[in-house]
Amino acid sequence: MDMQVLFVCSLIFFARVIDVTLGTLRTVWIVEGRRWSVFLLGFIEILVWIFAVSEVMQKMDNPMYAMFYALGFATGNYVGITLERYLAYGEQIVRIFSRHGNILAQAFRNLDFGVTVFRGDGRDSQIDMCFIETRRRRVREIVKLARELDPSCFYVIDTVQVASTAKPAEARNPTGWRAVLKKK
Question: Based on the structure, what is the number of domains in the chain?
Answer without folding.
Answer: 2
